[in-house]
Specification:
alpha+beta; Glucose Permease (Domain IIA); eight-stranded antiparallel beta sheet; 8 helices; about 25% helix; elongated
Length: about 350
């Protein structure tokens, strides 16, 4: 598939509310029907805020990165940088609005050795030069996005990039979906139009705040021990924690099975998503396989089903929260939450 074709398809994905992106993260085979993405407030996903021109530039950045085997993290850094620098527009000289000779998606300057004006105005060349410099930054994959971007750009506003990370992650996920490029933790299942998946393929065995369990702030999915747990959508890992206690209140290991006399969530992780919602995954078998601050994508494996903490047997306890931090007051029924995002938990 040509880069032009990929850009055109990505533009269509952004412009049209398709039902299911079957090729996301290397997925093959027919897609099943999924509902359009809307948040609980009715707002659309971040990708929907960008038009076909901007989406085309994202596709170019992703294809250039893929051709150089740049990890997904690098794609997200580059797209966030381009959003900040140009709004994902291939800008020519802005005359009075620009006090330098900055040009293009990344506002690179001919006078600073980024290339000729004609080269910089070629988005593929500009992306390639961005990655040339990023890959020379020591330890760039472990740096916060704003530090990695600033090491490349040397901007007068070094803290400006971080706020675009959620949007960049959503846009990169969409571009990967269209291009059929495998991301970490390839997922063989349906991904909704907004990039949401069912974390485990298992039946619902306990509901949200039922009459018999009014304090149950999530749902239980009855998956077998060691079943992979997948991130429900792209986002940032904001908690990786052992939360289990003995009857006397002293800390208890999460590396052993819990029981109903053991308070706590056991090993668990929380992910903050682009729409500022939070998903929580409890009772993991061992420490989650992701780290605090890590950027994850829909379908990426984040841990294994277990029975640590307050648990009577292996299952995933899944919670959904409408705001960060995730607290009891903003917990909502995951069945309703996921249905609004095109995923059936039942």
């Amino acid at each position: 598939m040509t880069s032009r074709a990929i850009r055109l398809i990505l533009a269509a994905v952004v412009a049209v509310a398709v039902c299911c992106v079957g090729a996301l993260f290397g997925l093959t085979g027919a897609a099943t029907a999924c509902m359009p993405l809307t948040s609980a407030s009715g707002s659309t996903a971040p990708v929907d805020r960008y038009d076909s021109e901007q989406a085309g530039h994202v596709a170019t950045i992703v294809m250039v990165a893929a051709g150089r085997s740049v990890p997904v993290r690098g794609m997200v850094i580059a797209v966030a940088t381009a959003i900040q620098e140009s709004g994902l527009r291939n800008l020519g000289h802005q005359r009075p609005a620009n006090d330098h000779d900055s040009l293009g998606l990344f506002q690179q300057r001919p006078s600073q050795g980024w290339g000729t004006p004609e080269q910089i105005m070629d988005p593929a060349h500009a992306a390639g030069r961005f990655f040339d410099k990023l890959l020379r930054v020591a330890g760039w994959e472990q740096l916060p996005l704003t530090q990695a971007a600033q090491a490349v750009q040397v901007s007068a506003y070094p803290d400006a990039y971080a706020k675009w990370e959620p949007d960049a992650a959503a846009l990169v996920a969409a571009a990967l979906a269209v291009a059929g490029i495998a991301a970490p933790g390839a997922f063989a299942g349906c991904v909704s139009a907004g990039g949401w998946v069912k974390p485990v393929d298992a039946p619902l065995v306990s509901g949200f705040r039922t009459g018999s369990r009014p304090g149950h702030d999530g749902v239980d999915l009855g998956a077998a021990r060691a079943t992979p747990i997948r991130a429900a959508s792209s986002g940032t890992v904001i908690k990786v924690r052992c939360n289990a206690f003995n009857a006397d209140g002293s800390p208890r290991s999460c590396d052993i099975d819990g029981d109903l006399s053991t308070p706590g969530c056991g090993w668990y992780a929380e992910i903050l998503h682009a729409d500022r919602t939070v998903t929580r995954y409890c009772h993991m078998l061992r420490r989650p396989t992701v780290d605090l601050g890590e950027q994850v994508f829909a379908g990426q494996v984040i841990g294994l089903v277990g029975t640590s903490g307050h648990s009577s047997g292996p299952h995933l306890h899944l919670q959904t929260h409408l705001a960060h931090p995730a607290v009891e007051a903003n917990a909502v029924d995951p069945v309703v939450f996921f249905a609004g995002r095109g995923v059936d938990l039942t």
